């Protein structure tokens, strides 16, 4: 790798590391999702700074130009990150579905209380009355303004 | 509506612990009867919630698995909302001995400036706790790092057998780490000038089920918690204070 390219790669890796670390510090990024980014930045920094290692790696896998080996490693990390975030998105969408279902079931369960309030049963202070026959499903009275 | 009968709450986080959770609740009832018991069923796929409810404990079932941090924080929020003065955490797998809660209470009431009292397996040396060497190395590394940071001897930073007072409950209800929370929690306490002490306790190896910590995960555990400690050191407040941006805040700019 030429010296200019080497300096640029080192700066890039340090920049990525710094930005990710600062985002964790400001709570914009959870540690769990920062670890892979930080690992990528560290490995790229190592390869950029230690040209001998990059050359050995390049010749081992048959890449003529060492800087291309650098790009291959960077690309592999990007693939890994995208795959990781795909699994995270899948889990989040599953959790979101479960939350929506639980919320709508809870709303349905709270409807007798709401209806009683709209009919003006507010004269009776205990809005929990209509569901008193279902002790297991007590709903906190006055949770609506 | 309040089901509070005491000012002590024992929170039992349980994820697929159907075979042991009832025993844990019964043991708390028998050996630490001053505690109300709240079982946080962390999205179990087995009978954990039903078994716990049969024992008469209060049971909160999370809609999906949040992990130990989210489950225990549910307990903190519950304790805060219902006005409990003290909250203890007792794991649902039966490794903690509820009779030892008495020691934690004694230490905390002897020194009112203490906000957390933590049961330690390693404090008196003859606890008989034989963890695998890898796990013990990890525990000792965190004990060493935390000791340097908080300027106080910490022997068992990963112990989940803890008693919290009202101040610690309020702090952790606001913010508590998502996964492997115990080590970071000590740092959070320290950076908010809350105080802790350790008490020697016996612990059992797990009754049943699988520890959440396997070999692959233990590497993640070490890296994640070390990173969190480092980042936590560089934060002004490791828990959000009144007036700070919300922990989950709307995106600004790009």
Written account of the structure:
The complex is a heterodimer of chains A (145) and B (254). The relative contact order of chain A is 0.08. Chain A has one domain. Chain A is built from four helices and no strands. Chain A is mainly alpha-helical and 145 residues long. With 254 residues, chain B is an alpha/beta fold. Chain B has eight helices and seven strands; from the N terminus they run βαβαβαβαβαβααβα. In chain B, strands 3-2-1-4-6-5-7 form a seven-stranded mixed sheet, with helices on both faces. In chain B, α1 (21-31) links the parallel β1 and β2. In chain B, α3 crosses α6 (166-174) and α5 (133-150) packs parallel to α7. The longest helix of chain B is centred in the C-terminal third of the chain and has 19 residues, at 215-233.
Quickly describe the structure:
The complex is a heterodimer of chains A (145) and B (254). With 145 residues, chain A is mostly helical. Chain A has one domain (3-120).
Give descriptors for this structure.
heterodimer; A: 145 residues; mainly alpha; 4 helices; B: 254 residues; alpha/beta; Spore Coat Polysaccharide Biosynthesis Protein SpsA, Chain A; 8 helices; 7 strands; 14% strand; globular
């Amino acid at each position: 790798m030429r010296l200019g390219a080497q300096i640029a790669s080192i700066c890039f890796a340090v920049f990525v590391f710094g930005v990710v670390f600062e985002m964790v510090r400001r709570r914009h990024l959870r540690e769990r999702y920062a670890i892979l980014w930080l690992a990528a930045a560290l490995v790229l920094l190592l390869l950029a700074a230690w040209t001998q290692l990059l050359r050995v790696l390049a010749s081992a896998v048959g890449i003529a130009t060492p800087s291309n080996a650098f790009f291959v490693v960077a690309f592999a990390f990007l693939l890994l990150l995208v795959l990781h975030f795909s699994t995270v998105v899948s889990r989040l969408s599953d959790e979101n579905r479960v939350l929506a279902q639980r919320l709508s079931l809870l709303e349905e369960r709270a409807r007798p209380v709401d209806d009683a309030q709209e009919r003006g049963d507010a004269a009776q202070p205990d809005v929990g009355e209509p569901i008193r026959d279902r002790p297991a499903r007590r709903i906190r009275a006055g949770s609506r303004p | 509506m309040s089901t509070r009968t005491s000012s002590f709450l024992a929170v039992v986080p349980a994820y697929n612990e159907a075979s042991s959770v009832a025993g844990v609740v019964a043991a708390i009832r028998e050996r630490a009867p001053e505690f109300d018991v709240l079982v946080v069923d962390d999205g179990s796929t087995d009978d954990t919630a039903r078994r716990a409810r049969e024992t008469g404990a209060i049971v909160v079932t999370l809609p999906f698995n949040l992990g130990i941090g989210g489950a225990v924080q549910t307990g903190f929020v519950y304790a805060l909302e219902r006005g409990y003065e003290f909250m203890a955490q007792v794991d649902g797998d039966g490794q903690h001995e509820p009779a030892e809660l008495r020691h934690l209470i004694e230490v905390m009431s002897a020194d009112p400036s203490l906000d957390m009292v933590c049961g330690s397996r390693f404090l008196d040396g003859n606890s008989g706790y034989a963890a695998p060497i890898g796990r013990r190395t990890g525990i000792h590394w965190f004990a060493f790092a935390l000791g340097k940071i908080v300027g106080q001897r910490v022997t068992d930073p990963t112990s989940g057998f803890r008693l919290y007072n009202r101040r610690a409950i309020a702090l952790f209800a606001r913010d508590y780490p998502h996964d492997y929370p115990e080590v970071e929690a000590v740092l959070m306490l320290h950076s908010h000038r809350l105080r802790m002490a350790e008490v020697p306790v016996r612990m059992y190896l797990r009754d049943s089920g699988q520890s959440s910590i396997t070999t692959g995960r233990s590497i993640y555990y070490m890296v994640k918690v070390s990173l969190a400690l480092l980042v936590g050191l560089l934060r002004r407040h490791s828990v959000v204070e009144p007036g700070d941006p919300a922990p989950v805040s709307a995106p600004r700019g790009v």
